Structure to design on (460 residues):
């Protein structure tokens, strides 16, 4: 009954939000953080019209006829952008029927696409929305091969249309985990990755014989690469007998080679990071993003020189594995100082997306630790807003309060990087969102529960 009630509540919220329309409003007198790396602005104003930000900062004129909210004593920020999450892919991790994070028994790998499996009614989405998260990238986990499949960009609005961009990136596992999946050695993982990319290159060349799709390379995905029926038999015959990919998987990797689909590579140790960077010499079209990168500070200048962004979890400072021996909480700050674009991410499982402000706040606090390297308030907040948005391809449109950006606005009861603060209002595309969820309803239910409210099962 409780599960059914939770589902009913979630669906009711989605239905109400679907019928809502964007609001025109202004919030005045608040401390405003625009998310672009700058420091907060005292007594600022944010104006949203038609689902878009019109202006944000000090001295902003308020258009006539719109709703004005007094933001005194509050902070107003862009919505948090959670990088590399598993939002909407599972309900109960131990219940296989509700868990779509990985597909270990699937006949496909790179062709796997998380978008159709994302559940907008998931309680994890509702809980993250209550924490101020308005957009996220959703990343699959590997199954039986180093290729996990294609991730998506989503919004966390309480409606049934969560996916903003399907097939937004391809994720591949290297390092220790990749070695295990590829046959027990990093040499096998690199051979497998290079073989797959070469197969995809050959496949894309053959597919081009059929006349193409008529669409520019940057708008193509693995789902719409051309396969002329007249050439299908010849294509299959032309493929060598030792190919490792299905035709569907090979097609899915073609946009990666063209650079129209970023390749997210999970690596931790410095040597593996350098090997991942070397991929761009053999495959110059790759749009590379490094994920994990616990030892990134050791090769930060090389990462910066390559212009490759990083998604990392800054609180990693204990070497759980051999590939993390040089892990330190100063990792993110040192990479940032070296010129690396750094986003806070890997927000999945127990490390929930709503905890991103705590991780960012720790980076600010590190500046007070002798010998440690952290970030300024503005830099740390950008690492959970504008920077992950830029890495996802939504730079200037999400994770910032600037003219023309999406109307994702969060009102906090205090400094968002302090653990004692919480959102009091959340807007996505200018639509105010419900903040209740299964956890908050349970909290209300048991807040003042006495013995008379206990169910009969507790009678002795």
């Amino acid at each position: 009954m409780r599960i059914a009630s939770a589902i009913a509540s979630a669906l009711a919220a989605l239905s109400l939000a679907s019928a809502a329309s964007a609001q025109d409003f202004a919030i005045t007198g608040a401390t405003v953080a625009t998310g672009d790396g700058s420091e907060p602005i005292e007594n600022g104003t944010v104006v949203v019209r038609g689902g878009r930000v019109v202006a944000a900062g000090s001295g902003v004129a308020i258009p006539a006829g719109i709703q004005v909210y007094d933001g005194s004593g509050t902070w107003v920020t862009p919505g948090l952008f959670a990088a590399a999450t598993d939002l909407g892919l599972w309900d109960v991790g131990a219940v296989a029927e509700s868990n779509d994070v990985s597909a270990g028994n699937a006949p496909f790998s790179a062709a796997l696409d998380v978008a159709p499996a994302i559940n907008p009614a998931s309680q994890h989405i509702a809980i993250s929305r209550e924490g101020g998260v308005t957009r996220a990238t959703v990343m699959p986990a590997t199954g039986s091969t180093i290729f996990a499949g294609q991730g998506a960009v989503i919004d966390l609005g309480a409606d049934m249309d969560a996916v903003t961009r399907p097939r937004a990136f391809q994720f591949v596992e290297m390092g220790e985990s990749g070695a295990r999946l590829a046959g027990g050695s990093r040499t096998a993982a690199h051979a497998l990755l290079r073989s797959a990319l070469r197969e995809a290159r050959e496949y894309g060349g053959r597919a081009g014989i059929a006349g193409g799709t008529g669409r520019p390379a940057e708008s193509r995905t693995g789902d719409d690469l051309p396969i002329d029926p007249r050439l299908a038999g010849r294509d299959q015959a032309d493929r060598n007998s030792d190919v490792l990919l299905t035709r569907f998987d090979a097609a899915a990797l073609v946009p990666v080679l063209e650079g129209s689909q970023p390749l997210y590579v999970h690596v931790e140790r410095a040597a593996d990071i350098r090997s991942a960077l070397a991929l761009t010499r053999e495959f110059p079209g790759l749009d590379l993003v490094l994920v994990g990168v616990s030892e990134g500070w050791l090769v930060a200048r090389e990462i910066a020189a390559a212009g490759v962004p990083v998604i990392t979890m800054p609180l990693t400072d204990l070497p759980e594995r051999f590939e993390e021996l040089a892990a330190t909480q100063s990792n993110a700050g040192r990479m940032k100082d070296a010129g690396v674009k750094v986003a806070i991410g890997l927000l999945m499982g127990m490390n929930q997306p709503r905890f991103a402000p705590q991780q960012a706040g720790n980076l600010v606090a590190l500046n007070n630790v002798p010998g440690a390297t952290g970030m300024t308030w503005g830099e740390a907040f950008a690492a959970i807003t504008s920077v992950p948005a830029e890495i996802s391809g939504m730079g200037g449109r999400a994770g910032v309060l600037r003219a023309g950006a999406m109307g994702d606005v969060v009102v906090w009861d205090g400094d968002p990087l302090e653990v004692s603060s919480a959102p009091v209002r959340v807007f996505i595309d200018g639509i105010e969102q419900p903040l209740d969820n299964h956890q908050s309803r349970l909290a209300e239910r048991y807040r003042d529960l006495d013995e008379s409210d206990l169910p009969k099962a507790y009678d002795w």
Remarks:
- The mean pLDDT is 89.
- The longest helix spans residues 186-208.
- The chain is about 30% helix and 20% strand.
